Amino acid sequence: MRVSGLLITAFFAAVCCRAIAQVSVEIKLDQEQYLPGETVRIAVRITNFSGQTLRLGETPDWLAISVESRDGFIVPKTGEIPVVGPFTLPSAHVATKRVELTPYLDLSRPARYSVIATVQILEWDQAFSSAPVTFDIVEGAKLWEREFGVPTTNGPPEVRKYTLQQVNYLKQVKLYVRVTDASGAKVHRVLCLGPLASFGHPRPAVDKLSNLHVLFQSGARSFLYCVVNPDGDLVKCETYDYAATRPRLMASADGDVTVVGGVRRPARNAPAGAVTNAPGTNKIGRPTNGG
User: Which of 106, 167, 123 is nearest to 142 (CA)?
Assistant: First the structure.
């Protein structure tokens, strides 16, 4: 009887495992640390081994994203996360749904957060959830800030502010730029410009069009040159090497800013802030070994 009981338990366990394995949900993050106001994007990977094609994305309740602070703080919602976008997922295929959290959840409070994605299969009346994935909102060290004006159609210019911050991420230091209103309360954009050498100090300058130019050392003999516009868009990213001379920023008499010295070369890897994945897009493909 004891052996039979074990066999029955094993049988039911196997059945449950097969049911769970029909559809699996997984969350991927680009990084594990973010500054307050920085865009937090997640990729929800859905694997279908049910033996039939699934129709997903037709209603707002097909995908639910749950975010909570590890210290019990309730994350305020500032809007509904848009997830509607019909697509089909054949059996033995994987779909990736990319979602931005920052515009719809207030993640400005430094803390550790946990995010879970739940996919509802309406035809089966079943839901499948991912394992929780954690990330941290951290404060960076302020290196420099400068207020600047943005022309308006009527009245005086709008006053905004550039702030350069550094964040220690694992064993690497990263340089960020934050674009806010004059008070710093309203965040327009937070961008990671790239790795910052521990022995280097960024050199910023603002040109006549209120664009921010930043030249900073990213390696032993390499420098990154980034240009950010008043809306926080990264409009230029170039790599310079220390050759006969060291690269440096130069402002002309008419307010233009350029790099002089060093040797320019194409950047091998674009900085994180330069890569933008359109939210809400799907990427479908066959699963491969190792995911």
Answer: 167
Q: What is the pLDDT of residues 61-92, one digit of tens each?
A: 999 999 999 888 889 889 999 999 999 999 99
Domain carrying residue 166: 141-274
Distance CA 96, CA 280 (A): 9
Q: Which two tokens stand for residue 95?
A: 């779909």
For 82-106, give one letter per residue: b (16+ CB within 10 A) or e.
ebeeeeebeeebbbbbbbbbbebbe
CB 188 within 8 Å of CB 232: yes
Last residue of a domain, one of 101, 119, 137: 137
Half-sphere exposure of 291 (CA within 13 A, CB side): 9
Q: Is 264 in the same domain as 168? A: yes
| Residue 10 identity | A
Q: What is the DSSP letter of 131?
A: P
Distance CA 169, CA 40 (A): 16
Same domain, 72 and 168: no
Tokens, residue 231: 């809306």
Alpha-carbon distance of 101 to 176, in angstroms, equals 19
The reply to whether 155 and 269 lie within a common domain is yes
Q: Taking all residues of the chain, what is their mean pLDDT, rounded to a whole number?
A: 85
